[in-house]
Amino acid sequence: MARATVQDVAKTAGVSVGTVSRVLNKSPAVSESSKEKVTAAIRQLNYRPLASARDLRRDRTMRILALAKNLNSPIISEAFRGVGDAAASSGYVSLIAPTAGDLEREQQLVDMLRNGSVDGLIMFSPTMPDEDVDEMAEQLSVVQVCEIADSEAAFGVSIDDRQAAFDITRHLIETGGRRLAMIGNRAARSGRLREEGFRQAAAEAGMSPDQMLFVEGEFDFHTGRRLTRKLLTADPLPDAVFCGSDTVAAGCVREITDAGLRVPDDIAVAGFDDSVQAEMCVPELTTIRQPAYDMGRLAFEELLARMTVPGAHRRGRTFLPHELVVRDSTRT
Amino acid sequence: MARATVQDVAKTAGVSVGTVSRVLNKSPAVSESSKEKVTAAIRQLNYRPLASARDLRRDRTMRILALAKNLNSPIISEAFRGVGDAAASSGYVSLIAPTAGDLEREQQLVDMLRNGSVDGLIMFSPTMPDEDVDEMAEQLSVVQVCEIADSEAAFGVSIDDRQAAFDITRHLIETGGRRLAMIGNRAARSGRLREEGFRQAAAEAGMSPDQMLFVEGEFDFHTGRRLTRKLLTADPLPDAVFCGSDTVAAGCVREITDAGLRVPDDIAVAGFDDSVQAEMCVPELTTIRQPAYDMGRLAFEELLARMTVPGAHRRGRTFLPHELVVRDSTRT
DNA sequence: CCTCAATTTGGAATCGATTCCAACGAACTC
DNA sequence: GAGTTCGTTGGAATCGATTCCAAATTGAGG
Predict the structure, then answer these.
(1) How far apart are CA B63 and CA A209, in angstroms?
(2) Chain A residues 25-54 within an 8 A CB cutoff of chain B
(3) Is residue A133 within 8 Å of A152, Cβ to Cβ?
(4) How far apart are CA A99 and CA A106, in angstroms?
(5) Does the predicted model carry a pTM greater than 0.85?
(6) What kind and span of H or E run contains A96?
(7) What is the mean pLDDT of the segment spanning A19-34?
């Protein structure tokens, strides 16, 4: 059997389509008796209003989309949980799609906003260049989370990545770090900011740039191991490594341990994110905690403002406080 | 400025709406000259066809939705990558949404299929009861992945969880396990099947049910630790533990190690999934590899068949081969 | 019994893209 | 030159839900 329409419901209930629609939308101007007839007909026909027809007429979908390179990042899945909860309490459905760092696929998904498949967009880790994101934000309902460009024109919700990297690097120095190294990722905005914070803290402690080791790559476990292997060929060895993510730090710790050295006695290691990996690691990782869930909630609130008050409401960047979590992978 | 419509494009290009639509849909029956005029007008007005209008008329969206309890499961994110790649090469956009194990939210998302917001649905870890899923599958384009009910009426793509659990339990026994324990999860279909496989292998090795320890809970690191603590109060201690996921196994190994016992010498530990956690663990975990990416691809193919040939094409359950990966967390 | 207001209802117009059908002009055949 | 075909085009009808406007019904007040 084909799908039932308002027409069918109206006929079955013995009322007009207008009345059916009023019942569907809980308009108060419906008598109790016709409301009952309509409700019965809806149940009998197993009727559901067709989303595309409704969206067309209403000019909105009550759906939002989030984009991220990967889904398996703990920070992103936690932040998206915040987005989802905030969205749900405003009646929105939130969906997420991975771009896999593929520009074409990202464009296709961004088009879902342009063609009205969704009302708003949250970008976790854009693949497109900063300028393109900023340009999009000029006209469309877009909010960035976690990764925000370091320009005045930028907008979105994040921690202060530079400051956080500065703080944890300071901690490494204060606990005796003299030959610092960092495993970073220049492909990401946040990665570049963390590098800046690292360099700044090291410089303030009187280290010259050529005293600092820096290697970079993707933020996964195997890359962490590979890059650490590279660091371990240095002479003299670094005595403290700041890693751009906990997963990388786990790889780093593993490689150091396998080389017969001790963490933190020989080399201290710090991570970033305070994901569950920080606790799974032995020794447990000193790291930076991001309030990911709240970042997600806030991002949705900002998006909601942009969706409902079009054009206006450019609140700019919002920074949430981070927290240094000291565990056993750094010296005391 | 408001959104441009086909009407606007037609006027600007000096042709009719029909011609504009024909250009948009690459109909061959358009002269070169009007195609150029239309293309120019589209660019000039920055026109995008409105999705809801198009979907309404075409009666399909070229979008599919996947549902999972959590996004951060490595198996799910890998399987969804397979779904996404297969979908993309058939011109579909694939989205995913977490249900958080909340029945109401799951219903709301399933409604997106019922009301035509998407053309098909992939369910990774349903919260609703098996019967409801089967009933949905009768009428709608739904495919299950990873978690398949153990009934003939069931359908979807998965590994043979019972056999896989049987295989890895056999391995534990063959390498000297005499007092077996399992950390499982009865809330999930796959969890129940894995328990069956475990019990069957143990029974075949001549162990009585009361010789086997069994505890259960959610599949996360902290639960793994907590449940292992419970196992370690047993007397005599188990000498081999089969965990329902690598994450749980990581927690199990950690707790055993912290208690001053050695893995695998005192207690062997096996995981499940062959996620990256299996390699992050020290010692690295013996586990079961699931071909998650291929499961995702296959699931989409099956879904595509259901979407395009409605009603028909109930291929039933498809099992993909798993693989026992032996590492250092079990004896040799 | 009539008027006026309040409540409820029916039905047409609308949203924007697609598609079908009729019609037009050009080219070709006999 | 009349008739046919082909390629191209315009425009109306359509998809299904919403919403506005006018009409119908009810009830109260005089």
Answers:
(1) 50
(2) 48-53
(3) no
(4) 5
(5) yes
(6) strand A93-98
(7) 89
